[in-house]
Amino acid sequence: MEIGSDVKRDEVQKLVKEIMEGEKGKTMRKNILEWKKLAKEAIAQHGSSFKNLDILVNQVLLRKREGRAGV
Asked: Mind listing the GO molecular function terms for this protein (predicted)?
């Protein structure tokens, strides 16, 4: 995020207040908590990221074994 040199203090103050106290801020915090929950589920054992990493490791090991068997 870039802030131009023409940004006024009161504009920044208004936006920060909206994020901290306003509806946009509440919505953002709600969304963040949902993403946090989803991320924890994904990396937990049997979560999607855990499963995908397990598949990747198994594929790499299988290719390594196949490569050695062909030698």
From this structure: cyanohydrin beta-glucosyltransferase activity; quercetin 3-O-glucosyltransferase activity; quercetin 7-O-glucosyltransferase activity
